[in-house]
Write a structure and sequence with these properties.
With 517 residues, this protein is of the alpha/beta class. The chain is built from 18 helices and 22 strands. Bound molecules: adenosine-5'-triphosphate (ATP) and magnesium ion (MG).
Length: 517
């Protein structure tokens, strides 16, 4: 019966008229002869939140870019509200009511939040300047509905990654989308922001908006989504209501084999605290970081926990010489060190893997192999030439260890999927053998199959006598890697706990909120 709720096929909401909001059938897409989507079917009911999962490079973003008109399909059909549509440009998609929050940010850094939100949404015939005051007011309204505290007049380039992400979401909402595609929207959000986003998504779904939610976080998928589709290597493995599938089954579908659950904290053999590697004494780096003192030993992993905007990333940047340290002292191996630039920090044995990796960690137009080898070129040099065989072996080894999905290492890194680009940055820096490694959200965007692997790699580095500082908003991960956790609040250390003192995630959550002190 048309119009009835169809709980039996997993559609969690009323489907008015029985027509799916979106029906994609037999979608095929190749890039340069390499098939990325091999005949994918995907349907989206009105008012449903539909999770899209799969390993890095499985084709999730590409499938949604087909729907968004960024990469028109080679074959297959798309129907919106039961009517067949041709989507061959972003303009077509927008006309069909489809909005997307891009995994790779599409914002213009030099413009304000309000200008970005309405960028390109202006009808073409109005070629005059956008009414700034109206834009600020309208953007303010959208942001307020989202429960986000951002000044619409702020310049996007000055915002943190998380706030840029929220601006990106506001932009899609402001365009009145009836179908909203979110590609890993929480990858860089702290808990509170994620909560606000989830509440927002539920409100949108209740209004009949269909949401596609791409995520590598299983816990989120169960909280927010009604159904899930799993892609593997460009084919659809399954579509199922979440009430009818276990997390283990999903993970097995994504990875192709069973995994032993969440990462756990393991003391690696031979581990133990060694000499002092890094010591910060009363470090100030305005505007955020103030009076930070701590000691990192060889063989130790320190986790930094804190809310978004607490100054965790800024502390990392100050230690690595990106932001200026105005007073205080940093010493490396007991000697006062000059870490006033990243180059000097690298020379002193530090490495930082930044949160905003695409921007800061990669040369996008260079090949995967070149990016991987960039920090170790010196070692691979033979006179004026590069030791070609060793270079090849080295990049092949990193690609294998980090499970980077790439057809040919000579391809530009820009053509890799988002998660595979993240893996290249991680592999690049972890391959340089630094004494002190600082990782800012190391598993953001990384698929489930590789996440545990990265936790293990960090523990192994520590066991080999390195010192590691990890910033992570994912508490299970932070608890799995850290020997000690520093709570960062208002740019300073507000608490310190050894791993044994932290009973569980809830304890950590309370500590971050400031409820235990
Ligand atoms: N413009 C392009 N040119 C060539 N290859 C591409 C292009 N875009 C994507 N690909 C390839 O298509 C495959 C699927 O990429 P896609 O971005 O859809 O993966 P994904 O499932 O979103 O992965 P992730 O979880 O890492 O974001 C990857 O192997 C990627 O290298
Ligand atoms: Mg993707």
């Amino acid at each position: 019966m048309p119009g009835a709720a169809r709980a039996d096929d997993g559609t969690a909401t009323q489907v008015r008229g029985g027509e799916p909001a979106v029906l994609m059938s037999g979608i095929r897409k190749s890039f340069g002869g390499v098939p990325v989507l091999r005949g994918v079917d995907f349907d989206l009911a009105r008012g449903e939140v539909h999770a899209l999962a799969g390993g890095n490079g499985a084709g999730k973003s590409t499938l949604m870019k087909v729907l968004q008109g960024v990469h028109p399909a080679d074959e297959g059909t798309i129907a919106v509200d039961g009517r067949r549509v041709e989507i061959s440009s972003i303009h077509d998609a927008r006309a069909a009511g489809i909005g997307m929050v891009f995994q790779e940010f599409s914002l213009v850094p030099s413009l304000t939040v309000a200008q970005n939100i309405f960028l390109g949404a202006e009808p073409l015939r109005r070629s005059r300047l956008i009414d700034d005051r109206a834009a600020v007011a309208a953007a303010g309204a959208v942001l307020e509905e989202m429960g986000v505290d951002v000044d619409p007049r702020a310049v996007v380039g000055d915002l943190s990654t998380a706030y840029r992400q929220l601006t990106e979401i506001a932009k899609a909402l402001a365009q009145d989308a009836r179908v909203l595609i979110m590609d890993e929207p929480t990858a860089s959000l702290a808990r509170q922001e994620s909560e606000a986003l989830f509440a927002l998504i539920r409100r949108l779904a209740a209004r009949g908006i269909a949401v596609v939610y791409i995520s590598h976080r299983m816990e989120e998928v169960y909280r927010i989504a009604d159904r899930i589709t799993v892609l593997r290597d460009g084919t659809r493995l399954l579509t199922r209501p979440l009430s009818e599938i276990t997390p283990e089954q999903i993970v097995e579908g994504i990875v192709g084999k069973a995994l032993d659950g969440q990462p756990v904290h393991r003391q690696v053999d031979g581990a133990g605290l060694g000499a002092v590697l890094l010591q910060a004494h009363a470090v100030h780096a305005p505007p955020k970081v103030r009076d930070v003192s701590f000691t990192l030993h060889a063989g130790e992993v320190i986790g930094l926990a804190g809310l978004m905007g607490s100054g965790r990333s800024e502390l990392a940047r100050a230690l690595f010489g990106i932001d200026e340290v105005t007073s205080g002292e940093i010493s490396v191996r007991g000697r006062r060190a000059d870490l006033s630039s990243p180059r000097k920090a690298i020379a002193a044995g530090l490495a930082l893997i930044p949160e905003d990796r695409r921007e800061q960690g990669l040369v996008l137009e260079h090949s995967v192999a070149d990016n991987l080898l960039l920090p170790v070129l010196g070692e691979l040099r033979r006179g004026p030439l590069l030791h070609a065989r060793r270079a090849r072996e080295r990049s092949a080894d990193l690609i294998r260890r980090f499970a980077v999905k790439v057809a040919d290492p000579a391809r530009p890194v820009s053509l890799l999927s988002g998660g595979n680009q993240q893996k290249v940055v991680l592999a690049k820096w972890m391959g340089t053998d630094p004494d002190v490694l600082i990782l800012d959200e190391p598993t953001a965007g990384i698929d489930i199959g590789t996440k545990n692997e990265i936790v293990t790699m960090i523990r192994t580095l520590a066991a080999a006598g390195k010192g590691v500082i990890v910033i992570s908003s994912e508490y299970p991960e932070l608890l799995a890697v850290s020997d000690r956790v520093l709570i960062i609040r208002d740019g300073t250390i507000a608490g310190e706990y050894s791993r044994e003192q932290i009973a569980d995630e809830e304890f950590l959550e309370l500590a971050v909120q400031g409820a235990t002190s």
